[in-house]
Design goal:
The protein is α/β, with parallel strands linked by helices and 336 residues long. This is Isocitrate/isopropylmalate dehydrogenase.
Length: 336
């Protein structure tokens, strides 16, 4: 996917007379597949080394003023150590036919974060929730909701957490945050959110701030239920709340690293292509890059170009070649 990303980004740059400087991390990080044959002790060591290096890489980029990172394969355990340390949240706006859902995933705390200790036959995982980090995430989510819906923000704000396991602490924090921001924030058990989605649907604009334990599973379901989207075609962004990297946004495909398919030329590249377009437009000054790519995708799809997962016969490379062949710059819309 790194090669796909660079090809599309550079082609968009050519169309808009912008030259991109793409800097790759000097380290080839381990993935879960590449670590599978290692011993537990070696996996633990590689996990820590990769996390330390990627965190340093992100901090260095942010210090230089870099705004965007496109991340490919890395072992999830290493990645979530970095997300914990840099206080990351994943953001995705899912637009349905009758409603819009802004999903903000808490990647900075909870079971996906923390440290492991080992005794014979037992793995003990220690993690934490923090009043301070919870407050930062809620404040960020409300700001993002106002950005998406500037005429009043969200109609409904939910937090989906297994709060019954936290001695009432999270309930107390959220009550205080509701008062502080002047917003009604409903703290719900994940199964309650699921039931209400099935039985009641959503109002026009809903903000869901969610623990990763629920959101990681439900993200793909929500895409299908609300937006009619497949994860293979979708990218998302991870914002960092730590002051040292607060201007750095990490883009990734929703389908994950797909490292088990490396070298087969079979991965659906659409999510990567769309991420490149978003970065070109949002961070590179390539006006209408997203529209340019969407029109090109519509063209090749209408001609039957697709990878096997989408019912086609194209390889990754062939699909990207077809897309690049029809990429054309988009004129600014004419004022009505």
């Amino acid at each position: 996917m790194a090669e796909v990303f660079e090809r599309v980004l550079r082609r968009l740059g050519e169309l808009h007379a912008v030259e991109f400087d793409v800097v790759r991390s000097p380290r080839a990080y381990h993935s879960y597949v590449s670590l599978r044959a290692e011993s537990v002790e070696r996996i633990r060591r590689h996990t820590q080394e990769d996390a330390e290096h990627y965190e340093h890489f992100c901090r260095t980029l942010a210090a230089r003023g870099t705004e965007a990172v496109f991340r490919t394969a890395i072992n999830a355990q290493s990645l979530y150590l970095v997300r914990q340390r840099l206080r990351a949240v994943k953001v995705d706006l899912i637009d349905g036919q009758d409603s819009s859902l802004l999903l903000v995933r808490d990647e900075a705390q909870g079971f996906y974060t923390g440290e492991n200790s080992h005794t014979p036959g037992v793995v003990t995982r220690t993690m934490e929730f923090s009043r301070e980090i919870t407050g930062e995430i809620v404040a960020f989510a409300l700001r993002r909701a106002r950005r998406h819906w500037p005429d009043g923000g969200a109609d409904q704000v939910l937090m989906a957490y297994k709060f019954h396991l936290l001695d009432g602490a999270l309930d107390e924090w959220v009550t205080a945050l509701s008062r502080r921001h002047g917003v009604d924030i409903r703290l719900c058990q994940p199964d309650t959110v699921n039931r209400n989605l099935i039985e009641q649907g959503l109002p026009a604009r809903t903000l869901v701030i969610a623990s990763n334990e629920w959101a990681d599973i439900m993200h793909v379901v929500l895409l299908d239920k609300l937006g009619g989207e497949r994860q293979e075609n979708r990218f998302t962004e991870n914002a960092h709340l730590h002051p040292a990297v607060s201007g750095l946004v990490e883009y990734q495909t929703v389908h994950g690293s797909a490292d088990d398919l490396a070298g087969r030329d079979t991965v659906n590249p659409v999510a990567t292509v769309r991420a490149a377009a978003a970065i070109a437009q949002r961070h590179g000054g390539c006006a209408n890059a997203v529209r340019t790519v969407e029109r090109a995708l519509d063209t090749i799809w209408s001609e039957g170009a697709a990878t096997a997962d989408a019912g086609g016969q194209h390889s990754t490379t062939a699909l990207v070649e077809a897309l690049l062949d029809v990429l054309e710059p988009q004129a600014e819309p004419v004022p009505g």
